[in-house]
Amino acid sequence: MSWGTELWDQFDSLDKHTQWGIDFLERYAKFVKERIEIEQNYAKQLRNLVKKYCPKRSSKDEEPRFTSCIAFFNILNELNDYAGQREVVAEEMAHRVYGELMRYAHELKTERKMHLQEGRKAQQYLEMCWKQMDNSKKKFERECREAEKAQQSYERLDNDTNATKADVEKAKQQLNLRTHMADENKNEYAAQLQNFNGEQHKHFYVVIPQIYKQLQEMDERRTVKLSECYRGFADSERKVIPIISKCLEGMILAAKSVDERRDSQMVVDSFKSGFEPPGDFPFEDYSQHIYRTISDGTISASKQESGKVDAKTTVGKAKGKLWLFGKKPKPQSPPLTPASLLTSSTSNGSQFLTFSIEPVHYCMNEIKTGKPRIPSFRSLKRGWSGKMGPALEDFSHLPPEQRRKKLQQRIDELNRELQKESDQKDALNKMKDVYEKNPQMGDPGSLQPKLAETMNNMDRLRMEIHKNEAWLSEVEGKAGGRGDRRHSSDINHLVTQGRESPEGSYTDDANQEVRGPSQQHSHHSEFDDEFEDDDPLPAIGHCKAIYPFDGHNEGTLAMKEGEVLYIIEEDKGDGWTRARRQNGEEGYVPTSYIDVTLEKNSKGS
């Protein structure tokens, strides 16, 4: 099948078909270009999305630690790689498909133009041969008519008797001339006709088939090129499928790496303060005066005694019990009325006083519904840490556990910096040895300032490490000591017929826990034994205030810079030390705000 033989007379149709083929090629090239733009915009939007949700790591504290966050950021990294593969697809299509199509379209246009020009030239040449043949034909026809006219004129004159001989000769000469010219035109026409037939045969059997064959080959190459571009279009996508699959597998692995237990442990590690939970509230027995009143046997005496007991309870027992911030004040007991005391009789007729549970119930309601008197460590820390200003160098403003972690992180960073400086020193020493062996390479003395600077940096880093390790040892020592502490509280139980159970006082130290007498005494000796511990705690050292402290929170003690205070209780690892002024005012002050000096002889007293 050949266009030259089958389509010998369809030059215009082939002209339109080849133009349509090139237009289709350019249309597909335009499609590829728009697809490339889509891929590029898609990759750009993906990168912008990743950039939008990636963390801005301005400091190491903001680095993601939770497995869910790390998995999400790994997914973002994989998505960024996926966007890179979309860019690779766009680049491959642009280079292998679109660029090839545009180059080939330009070549097709040039080749098509050349073939069509050759075909048009062949047609023009054939038309020129046909015109020459037609002109010779027309001229031959005209000369034949003229010769016929000359013959008719000669015959008429020859038959005319009146015609002169000269006219007849003239007509005869004219006939011979026209006949000769007709013969010449006939020969010319025959030659032109033969030439035209030859050119026409050559045109339709040689020239045009050759031109059409070239056009056919050009169109077939265009079709093959389109097929290759289709395949290249798909291959551009298929080449990145393995990498895209790896990106998706990475996302799946990131999802599998999420560990909820580890995240929970990180929450504990991040926010653990290291403080011990507060101890139990002690039971405050407001009914002791009732039992003592019963042993007196008179209501009037019980009223007087109850007034004394309330005063002593407010002062004496408040000093005996140690709370988180100072000594817990006791609410005033409601006054007893005769209605609250009842008289009962035994089987032998003797009478004794009993009491109603209304006062006890009232006191318990006061304890349950009353406003808390002791602030928590968290509220206290918020209260004074906001006034401390910038963070301290030793992180003493932080809870013990967080302080330990911060110090450990700083020590690790300092060790890494020290290792870098050590490596730099070794490199400088090697370079100095090279310069000493080969003076032409450099001056060894030029490295001495840098070596000295490196040594100074190493000394500075060692000092910093030693200082932070000392702080870390201090924190770890306090944490170990804090594990030995315990909080205890004893609950007084109500016993009828004037007998009371032993009462325990709450202290921060197990050695300071004091219990009341376990045997029954008279009401006078009971009051004396219970409130005889009114002396303040002994001083175990002194301290000097390095910074001023306002002490607005309950249980704290305000102090001025340079003020000297007595130490009555050491820091138990919570960052607070109990101190007393010379006027007897007591309270807690931040340990990092004072310079403590303990007396060995009085420490155990």
Automatic annotation (TrEMBL):
Highest taxon above the source species: Eukaryota
Name this polypeptide is given: Formin-binding protein 1-like isoform X2
Taxonomic source organism: Castor canadensis
Phylogenetic placement of the source organism: Eukaryota, Metazoa, Chordata, Craniata, Vertebrata
